[in-house]
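Can anyone check this?
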Amino acid sequence: MANGLIRLIAGLGNPGSAYAQTRHNAGFMVVDALAEQYGIPWKSSRYDAAFGRGRVEGCDVLLVKPMAYMNRSGPPLRRVADYFRIQCGEMLVVYDDMDLAFGRVKIMEKGGHGGHKGVKSIMDAFGGGDFPRLRVGVGRPQPGQEATDHVLRRFDEAQQAVLGELIGRASEAAVTVLCNGTVEGMNRFNDKRMQMS
């Protein structure tokens, strides 16, 4: 399978066990799933990030988790990308998105930050938003609930029951983008919603 432009997949989240299963850590969950599925070991780095190098379906990839808090994701990712000589457009950024219903994933070739502080930090660090992204839907907060409170809480019981399926679907989307490109990924995964039992 021919490799596309993507050389790095970055998952966004907050470090520490307190945040491990929260909605804001959907990006971490996806790259952790990829690392486990394809036997890619994590290493810590002096750049305030964890990374792992390996092969996914025959495609070389660098998996990265910035270990700064979400709103400071950009500088560690930029330092890792610079070290490995990876350009902005050669990385796929995976993150949670409240504007997508739970159960949906959406691939975009580029765009703005949509109020997501992690994506904004990356755009600031790289000087723009010309990088592909994979948005993992976590749904909107309940009426009267603050957005920050929503994303820093764990998925509800019904969502927890199918969370593995959602992360698996997002992981499959990331592999498709890595090995076949963003257009193939968009055609296969955008505008399709996972059925919740």
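Reply from J.R.: I decoded it. The CA atoms of residues 110 and 197 lie 33 Å apart.
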